[in-house]
Amino acid sequence: MKTQGGAKAFLLIGTLLLAMVRLSPFVFSVISLIVNSEPVFDYLMTAELGFVAIIALLFLMVGTFLAKGPFMLFVVSSVVSVVSLVILMLLSDPPMFLAVSVLILYNLSLVSLLLHGVLSLK
């Protein structure tokens, strides 16, 4: 797929924002290790930064449509990501298995969206 300048900029911003969301728990765990001498890994941080993921999703959507790229991976991943994020936000005191399953589904959809962004930039 040949990407033009505007499409490439949208794809790059969306991919970088998604990478930031995915790497933030690890970065803050290292910072916590340096400051407090014990690592604290917040596995819910990707869901807490869901608004950044939604913004990245919008950038990827515009970039994908401008580049006329492969839509199937993007559409499936984005729908799963948004639906699982909404489910995570709406559930109050869910069973542990359901919460963990939806969180894993959300993180896997973010990884597939990140993969879509990287592959679209090539």
List the topology elements.
Elements: H1 5-36, H2 45-48, H3 50-67, H4 72-90, H5 96-121
Helix pairs in contact: 1-3, 1-5, 3-4, 3-5, 4-5
**How confident is the prediction overall: mean pLDDT?**
85
Largest sheet properties: none
Amino- and carboxy-terminal Cα gap = 8 Å
Radius of gyration, in Å, reads: 16 Å
- Percent of residues in β-strands: under 5%
Number of strands: 0
Helix content bin: over 70%
Please trace the helix and strand order, writing H or E for each element: HHHHH
Query: Ranges with pLDDT <50 over ≥5 residues?
Result: none
Q: Helix/strand-derived class?
A: mainly alpha
**Envelope shape:** flat
DSSP summary: helix tally: 5
Transmembrane segments: 47-66, 71-91, 97-119
Keywords: Membrane, Transmembrane, Transmembrane helix
Task: Report what the structure shows.
With 122 residues, the chain is an all-alpha fold. It is 81% helix and 0% strand. It has helices at 5-36, 45-48, 50-67, 72-90, 96-121. α3 (50-67) packs parallel to α5 (96-121) and α4 (72-90) packs antiparallel against α5 (96-121). The mean pLDDT is 85.
